Amino acid sequence: QVQLVESGGGLVQSGGSLRLSCAASGRTFNTYTTGWFRQAPGKEREFVAAIIGSINLGVNSTYSADSVKGRFTVSRDNVKNTVYLQMNSLKPEDTAVYYCAALRYYSGDYYSVGAYDYWGQGTQVTVSP
To answer: What are the backbone dihedrals phi and psi of residue 52, each rounded to the nearest 5 degrees, phi first?
Structure first.
């Protein structure tokens, strides 16, 4: 069982930056593939970025959606049991609730909501024009 707690959301102007944190319980969190998703009002939850866990081939490989590539970076601190999402050059269309999620047995699908086993409660990110 893994419990995830996101933090770091807030209100920022267009072009600004935020760093989201996903703190996890459990000593084996570094073995989980961790993803970031977001959901804007009236829209489906969508993939943002993911980092592959150490139990899998391609450990610490990262992937990101085309809409955030070059602006968002996902990373992991195994000592702190935390995964981060650094968001730069934020745009109003990045406004959403951001969720982190953990996947125990990665089989190549890091981008589907249904692939993940555990979810955090979400943190609001609002980007003003």
So the answer is: -80, 140
